[in-house]
Design the sequence.
């Protein structure tokens, strides 16, 4: 008999991981004109705090309340549309 496994994707939730607070030193900024809407940042964000907004000028929206500033989204972006900037 086969089993079904749920993907271990974390999701931001108030009171679970908690908000990031003031310790983050860099945050990702999106240059929307360079975004090719590939979804790689959304896929790789370990905090699952990137939303994809279909049909919007801003395809990628980051929830800074929960973003930890790890920079993975910036690293995986093929067009370098996401850059890490100082807080
Ligand atoms: S910096 Fe890290 S936590 Fe923040 S949006 Fe990018 S991948 Fe997610
Ligand atoms: S990885 Fe870069 S190009 Fe792809 S959706 Fe995210 S911001 Fe846009």
Sequence:
């Amino acid at each position: 008999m086969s089993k079904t496994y749920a993907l271990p994707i974390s999701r931001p939730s108030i009171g679970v991981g908690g908000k990031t607070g003031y310790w983050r030193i860099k945050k990702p900024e999106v240059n929307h004109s360079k975004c090719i809407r590939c979804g790689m940042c959304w896929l790789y964000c370990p905090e699952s705090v990137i939303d994809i907004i279909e049909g919007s000028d801003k395809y990628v929206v980051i929830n800074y309340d929960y973003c930890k500033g790890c920079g993975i989204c910036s690293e995986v972006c093929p067009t370098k549309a996401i850059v890490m900037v100082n807080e």
Remarks:
- Residues 40-44 form the longest helix (5 residues).
